[in-house]
């Protein structure tokens, strides 16, 4: 039954009026109306910070219109529900990954895109794990079905996605090679399941990957770095292997001719996105359930290393871009 007592309330949010650096983020009061049909109003308890937020803020990914409330990942408590919503009620703890709107104290969200948080998982962990964890789930389970003995090169191994990936891939029996930018990050990646870690500030990651694999190369490269690791990543893949480019923290991969993939060994390439792997309600629920199971059973431990007040989102963005963070980061409304 709909909550007929709900009224418009005022709450603070981080809004984007113009594209640019972290300084363009504004902490403003906004009006949040009652939920409409199929909607839920959520009081956010924690919001996840991701590099896609930087892409949106800087204009790499442009919004349909501005101003925009940034952020796609969060966890909170249902305040009220709109007409036609079944299975959710005020007081339920929920998590989500949506296109925007998460950098807010209170928000509206489509009920069909929410999942209930198990009692064993706290709000900060849930907010930090949804986008990164479900990304790891599709990368390991569906983009390339990883199995015992699969050889993998994973860039940015000490990041939020990388630390989840290393643990889960180890559980699946893969042989994992990670790249990092410092000795401290190398230690972190090794502690989270990676078999080999390459500090690319000191070593040539192509030569070292070839050495580790006995000259064969890896079955699959997972690359969220982009410009700085291209085309070198291709030289790490064995013939008929797969290059998965799923982000561009250093900038976009430049245009290249398809014949480059042929010359490097008849390689396959894909550019996946979470939206396409969780596009249906069934896919969303199955992906989240697999992630919750991995975390709940101890296969994966989520590191929330960085925490900022929501009002300090600009500082959080600056630290993320400067690679001063490890693990996951949350904003607290």
Write structural notes for this entry.
- The protein is of the alpha/beta class.
- It has 2 domains: 9-129 and 280-332, Medium-chain alcohol dehydrogenases, catalytic domain (Quinone Oxidoreductase, Chain A, domain 1), CATH 3.90.180.10; 148-271, Rossmann fold (3-Layer(aba) Sandwich), CATH 3.40.50.
- 28% of the residues lie in helices and 28% in strands.
- The chain has 9 helices and 16 strands.
- Strands 3, 5, 6, 7, 8, 15 and 16 form a 7-stranded mixed β-sheet that branches.
- β15 (304-309), α9 and β16 (328-332) form a beta-alpha-beta unit.
- The mean pLDDT is 95.
- Keywords: NADP, Oxidoreductase.
- One of its GO terms (molecular function) is quinone reductase (NADPH) activity.
- Residues 20-331 form the Enoyl reductase (ER) domain.
Distance between the termini: 28 Å
CATH superfamily of the largest domain: Medium-chain alcohol dehydrogenases, catalytic domain
CATH class of the largest domain: Alpha Beta
Provide the number of structural domains.
2
CATH architecture of the largest domain: Alpha-Beta Complex
**Low-confidence segments, ≥5 residues, pLDDT <50?**
none
Which percent band covers the strand fraction? 25-35%
What class, by secondary structure content?
A: alpha/beta
């Amino acid at each position: 039954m709909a909550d007929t007592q709900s009224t418009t309330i005022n709450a603070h949010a981080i809004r984007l009026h113009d594209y640019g650096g972290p300084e363009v983020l504004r902490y403003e009061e906004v009006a949040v109306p009652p939920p409409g049909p199929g909607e839920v109003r959520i009081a956010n308890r924690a919001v996840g910070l991701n590099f896609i937020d930087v892409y949106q803020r800087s204009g790499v990914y442009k919004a349909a219109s501005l101003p925009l409330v940034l952020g796609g990942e969060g966890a909170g408590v249902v305040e009220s529900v709109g007409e036609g919503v079944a299975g959710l009620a005020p007081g339920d703890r929920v998590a989500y990954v949506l296109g925007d709107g998460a950098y807010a104290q209170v928000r509206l969200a489509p009920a069909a895109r929410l999942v209930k948080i198990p009692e064993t998982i706290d709000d900060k962990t849930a907010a930090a794990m949804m986008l990164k964890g479900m990304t790891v789930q599709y990368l390991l389970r569906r983009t390339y079905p990883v199995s015992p003995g699969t050889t993998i090169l994973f860039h940015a191994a000490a990041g939020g996605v990388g630390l989840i990936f290393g643990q889960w891939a180890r559980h699946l029996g893969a042989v994992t090679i990670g790249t990092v930018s410092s000795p401290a990050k190398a230690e972190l990646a090794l502690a989270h399941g990676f078999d080999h870690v390459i500090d690319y500030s000191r070593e040539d990651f192509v030569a070292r990957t070839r050495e580790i694999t006995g000259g064969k190369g890896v079955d699959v490269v997972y690359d969220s770095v982009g410009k700085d690791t291209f085309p070198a990543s291709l030289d790490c893949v064995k013939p008929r292997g797969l290059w998965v480019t799923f982000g561009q923290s250093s900038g976009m991969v430049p245009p290249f001719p398809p014949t480059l993939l042929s010359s490097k060994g008849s390689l396959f390439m894909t550019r996946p996105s979470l939206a396409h792997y969780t596009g249906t309600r069934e896919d969303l629920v199955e992906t989240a359930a697999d992630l919750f199971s991995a975390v709940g059973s101890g296969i994966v431990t989520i590191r929330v290393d960085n925490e900022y007040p929501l009002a300090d989102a600009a500082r959080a963005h600056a630290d993320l871009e400067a690679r001063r963070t490890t693990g996951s980061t949350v904003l607290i409304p």
